[in-house]
Every structure is written in structure tokens, then in C-alpha cells.
Amino acid sequence: MKTVWKFYLVTLLVILIDQGSKLLVHFNMQMHEEINVIGDWFRLHYLLNPGMAFGMQFDIEYGKVLLTIFRIIASGAIAYSIYYLLKSKAHWGLLISLALILGGALGNAIDCVFYGVMIDGNVIPNSPTPWFHGQVIDMLYFPMVHGVYPEWIPSVGGNRFIFFSPVFNIADSAIFIGVVIILIFQNKFAAHESKMKAQQAVATEGKS
After folding, report:
1. Does the keyword Transmembrane helix apply (predicted)?
2. Which residues are catalytic?
3. What single DSSP character describes residue 121?
């Protein structure tokens, strides 16, 4: 039990950094204000995200509530998975990845549940209640490449583009990093799991 808290502390650290950065931006920047951090390619840009990634929403009255409840349930499942996988002696890299994902999920869930009540102007317009209808604060912006689509590309030819255009936050980053680590090292994690099961089987046979 003492060991599992080390991974939950990673989750807590992500939440603290995420919430701290969001509140610093809220109290020190105006909506849509932009500050160059490193040249033109790394900026702070204060935005509010009313729904899921890239601003997508459920087009029903209590869609935001359902989304937030889903996030909380998913977070509980991930938290339990960390505890269960630790007992199963899963690879520490997998547990760290899940802790990052959990921290990111809870970081954005906090915005959704409380910010509509705590922060003036944050609640989604025309919401039935400010609870569970807060908007997620985004601020990290990396418009690294500006260009124009070639004319021969259908629909978008001649239009300007920016790479990378989405504005996101620390919680989103933690989720992305956790998922990428799992995808890159999934074979290593699976091999470790197989090794642990083989060792457990040998130990069980030795006792019988």
C-alpha cells in the first residue's frame, strides 16, 4: 500500500501543476490574450474549452453533465487499475503512464465540476446549472509552422494553415504523454507481464 501512493503522488503533482497554471492564466491574462514565451512558436493563449477535446460538445441539455460524470467514473477506474496492476507487479513505466493519464483526467474534471461556480464568466452560456458546466481553461499554444496548402489539394488548396494549431493545457499534455508512453513501450510492458506470470507460476508449483 505504501508503494501505490508513490504513483498517486504523480497524479497529485499533475493536478497541482495543471490547476496552478490555469488559475495563474485566469487571474493574470485577459480572454484571448497572447504572450510569447519562446519566440513566436511557443505562446500562452487564454481560451475556454466548453466541451471535449477541440471544443466538441454533446448537443443535448445535460450533455456536459454526462461527459463530466463519465470523466469521473473513468478516473475511478484508472485509479483502481493502478492499485490492481501494482499488486500484479506490472511494469513501473505502465503505472507511471496511468498516473499521468489519471492526473490529466482529474485536472480537466475539476474545471468542469467547479469552475462554473468558482470563476465568473466561466460557466457555459444558458446552462441549467453552473455545477458540472464549467469550461476547461486552455493556454499552451505552439504555432510552429505557418504555410499555405498547395493549390492542387481539393477543398483546402490555397488556404493558409498553422501547425500545431490546437490550444491545450497541462492536463491534456499529461494524458497525451501517458498514452504515447503506453503505445511506444506496450511490447515491453507485455513482456514484463508475461515474465511476472511465469515467475508466479513457478513459485506456485514449488509450493505444491
Report:
1. yes
2. 138, 172
3. T
Are 86 and 4 in contact, with CB atoms under 8 Å apart? Answer: yes
Retrieve residue 126's grid coordinates.
Answer: 444558458
- The pTM assigned to this predicted structure is 0.89
Query: Hey, what's the cell of 174?
Result: 499529461
| DSSP SS3 for 29 | coil
If you count them, how many residues does the chain have? Answer: 208
Instruction: Reply yes or no: is the peptide bond before residue 164 cis, omega within 30 of 0.
Output: yes
Q: Which helix (H) or strand (E) holds 206?
A: helix 186-207
Three cell numbers at 50? 466548453
Residue-wise pLDDT tens digits, 168-195: 999 999 999 999 999 999 999 999 999 9
| Phi and psi angles of residue 45, each rounded to the nearest 5 degrees, phi first | -135, 110
- SS3 sequence of 52-100: CHHHCCCCCCCHHHHHHHHHHHHHHHHHHHHHHHHHCCCCHHHHHHHHH
Sequence-separated (6 or more) residues with CB below 8 Å from residue 184: none
